[in-house]
Design a protein that fits this description.
The structure holds 2 protein chains of 2 kinds.
Chain A: E1 2-11, E2 14-24, E3 28-34, H1 40-48, E4 55-60, E5 63-64, H2 65-68, H3 70-73, E6 76-79, H4 91-101, H5 108-117, H6 133-146, E7 151-155, H7 163-178, E8 182-186, E9 197-203
Chain B: H1 2-20, H2 23-43, H3 47-70, H4 72-80, H5 82-87, H6 93-120, H7 127-154, H8 161-188, H9 194-223
Helix pairs in contact in B: 1-6, 2-3, 2-6, 3-6, 3-7, 3-8, 6-7, 6-9, 7-8, 7-9, 8-9
Classes of the chains: A alpha/beta, B mainly alpha.
């Protein structure tokens, strides 16, 4: 269970949000809304622990995420604007490397199979440098298929993806929520779930954090 | 076990990346070779003078060459987002930092150390002095990489980071320079080099203990 308590974030001179509180239960999806610059990415990065909040805190099962440190990050899969893949490595190498760092190594065959599932058949062993934006995004998103973490934080996961990939990703997210996972995401797409609950959070210039 | 595996994974990854993009490795090495070779050409073939300046020249060149390679240490990881993923990995960040520095030293520091005795020949250094030069660089350059990593971590995302790294890190490297060059001089003058080498080893241990922690903290700040 993720608790955000009285969170405040200041970037430069501007206060993006203050007194933001919400709770996310297992099997819930939180859809962040807000216009450009309203602090969606900042909120996600703060929850991950990449940004130190200027006030308030984020709790994971009642304990402060900052104190939990690696115990919390082990429960988390974050996909940001940047893909987090190495341009000089191919898809297989990128995926296997990520899994090794996440503490769950996979075999070459398994990585091959997963990349095939995200629609990269025939491009698995090309360096990421020669792949298109959408294909790079697919390599990144392949992590979700292998992720055992209960909490997914996805910042604009649908950018650069084609229709088929968007649909595929939506189904993966829906499955994760059905299995009792938690998802926080920003997107302009609609995400429909068959089970579980979708909650909306709207950030504005004067965000008061009403869920 | 998972921690050690992550360390190995990072070392291996960075070595593979260095092999696929050889310019960084070779530019550092050739910078070192050229700077060291310029001095005998500029000063002239006066053997006594050359022998006198050799340890200092080789060490200063090694110091500058290792600064040159530092700029890219974390910058590429920051640009492509792998740094974020490293921070969010379920392993302590300093372990991953240690892996990155180890790979960086293997790719840029070790070739430089291996090349040094050959370059020392231009300065008419005796074989025992060359040997000490090799040992002092072997102990000193990893410490340079470790300390330099702190500067590299503090300057990611800044324009003109390369110059800033040098300004931040070079003053911290002075003790290593003094004891490194001093070891060879002490050997040439017959005073015995042991004290200097022990000092270098102590500095390396200190850097090994503290620098990864400082670098990890700096990375967290810079990644915001």
């Amino acid at each position: 269970m993720l608790d955000v308590v009285e969170l405040e974030c200041v970037r430069g001179d501007r206060r993006l949000f203050t007194g933001l509180s919400f709770t996310l239960q297992l099997g819930e999806l939180l859809h962040l809304h807000g216009h450009n610059g309203s602090g969606k990415t900042t909120l996600m990065r703060t929850i991950c622990g990449l940004i130190r909040p200027s006030g308030g805190e984020v709790l994971w099962n009642g304990e402060s995420c900052r104190k939990l440190g690696e115990e919390f990050t082990a429960e988390l899969t974050y996909i940001g604007h940047r893909n987090g893949i190495k341009e000089d490595l191919n898809g297989i190498e990128n995926l296997r490397l990520h899994c090794r760092l996440a503490g769950a190594p996979i075999t070459r065959e398994h990585a091959w199979e997963v990349l095939e599932r995200v629609g990269l058949r025939g491009h698995e062993d090309l360096p990421a440098r020669v792949l298109s934006q959408g294909q790079k995004r697919r390599v990144t998103l392949a992590r979700l298929l292998l992720s055992e973490a209960p909490l997914w934080i996805l910042d604009e996961p649908f950018t650069a993806l084609d229709m088929a990939a968007v649909e595929f990703l939506q189904s993966i997210i829906a499955q994760h929520v059905e299995r009792g996972g938690m998802v926080i995401l920003t997107t302009h797409q609609q995400v429909s779930l068959t089970r579980g609950q979708v909650r909306q959070l709207r950030l504005g210039w004067k965000a008061d954090g009403n869920v | 076990m998972a921690m050690f595996d992550a360390f190995r994974a990072i070392v291996l990854r960075d070595l593979v990346l260095a092999m696929r993009r050889k310019t960084d490795v070779f530019s550092t090495l050739f910078f070192f070779v050229i700077v060291v070779s310029l001095f005998p050409l500029g000063i002239g073939p006066e053997m006594n003078t050359l022998r006198l300046i050799a340890p200092g020249v080789v060490w200063v060149a090694a110091l500058l060459a290792s600064m040159l390679a530092l700029e890219r240490l974390f910058a590429t990881d920051h640009e492509d987002g792998t740094l974020e993923q490293m921070i969010l990995a379920p392993q302590p960040l300093f372990v991953l930092v240690l892996g990155k520095v180890a790979a960086h030293w293997l790719a840029t520091g070790l070739p430089l150390v291996a090349m040094a005795p050959l370059l020392g020949l231009q300065y008419d250094l005796s074989v025992p002095a060359l040997e000490i030069l090799l040992y002092s660089l072997l102990l000193g350059t990893p410490a340079l990489s470790l300390i330099g990593a702190i500067g590299a971590a503090l300057t990611i995302g800044l324009r003109g980071g390369g110059v800033l790294i040098s300004l931040l890190v070079l003053p911290l490297c002075i003790p290593i320079l003094i004891f490194g060059a001093g070891a060879v001089e002490a050997n040439v003058s017959g005073l015995g080099e042991q004290g200097h080498l022990f000092m270098l080893a102590a500095l390396l241990v200190l850097a090994l203990l503290l620098a990864p922690l400082a670098t990890a903290a700096a990375l967290r700040v810079s990644a915001e």
